[in-house]
Write a structure and sequence with these properties.
single chain, 220 residues, mainly alpha, two-stranded antiparallel ribbon, 73% helix, globular
């Protein structure tokens, strides 16, 4: 698949986008920290707050980045915007409707993996971007660009438990594949974490489903 834009055009969109929305980057970081803090506050309603915060990030990325800026160089951007807004609606629904969704930080492999993915999205990803020559404001930034936001979301969903997790995972996993194709063709090394984190979530969800099926079989 040949992309309809060059690397230079792609990065120029991020430069213009980051300059136009400043200081939203600081707010996005604050939202990310609040979501991370919600993992360790054992109070009712924390998962809902985290889902509502994710809804804000996904909606802003869909409308602010895909529709308002990326559409200048990519005719598929409005479609991507639709998927991101749809995902934001799903997160908002998870925040509003009563459900069994919970964020467990109990010591377990999936918790460690999820926190490692979140750390990658918030700390390692921007460092790799600077190393690759994008600069602090010259490339995708956490919470406001599709790929780091998706990686962060995948990490949170690895930690989350409940029936909602599967439905909330579909769009982020699909975007991990879209992002991989772009990363390989555009040479964005930080985005290579997308397929890895997507595969981790798929593995976790598969293991959870198999454990549930085994438990039901034992009861019978």
């Amino acid at each position: 698949m040949t992309l309809p834009f060059t690397v230079e055009e792609f990065l120029k969109v991020f430069q213009d986008y980051n300059a136009a929305i400043w200081p939203a980057q600081i707010i996005a970081w604050a939202i990310g920290i609040s979501i991370l803090a919600a993992l360790f506050v054992r109070r009712d309603g924390m998962p809902r707050i985290a889902m509502a915060a994710l809804a804000v990030l996904w909606a802003f990325t869909g409308i602010g980045y895909h529709l308002a800026f990326f559409a200048r160089i990519n005719p598929l951007a409005p479609v991507f915007a639709g998927f991101f807004v749809f995902q934001a609606i799903l997160f908002l629904a998870a925040a509003i409707r009563p459900s069994d969704l919970r964020l467990s930080t109990a010591l377990a492999l999936r918790t460690v993996l999820g926190l490692a993915i979140i750390f990658y999205a918030m700390a390692v990803y921007p460092v790799l971007g600077i190393w690759a020559g994008h600069g602090g404001m010259g490339g995708p930034m956490f919470g406001l660009a599709p790929c780091p936001t998706t990686i962060f979301t995948l990490g949170l969903l690895v930690i989350a438990r409940g029936r909602w997790v599967v439905w909330l995972s579909i769009v982020p996993v699909l975007w991990s594949l879209v992002g991989l194709a772009a990363a390989l063709q555009l040479g964005i090394p930080e985005d290579l974490g997308l397929p890895v984190t997507g595969a981790v979530l798929i593995a976790v969800l598969t293991a959870t489903a198999l454990q549930g099926r085994s438990a039901r079989g034992s009861v019978r």
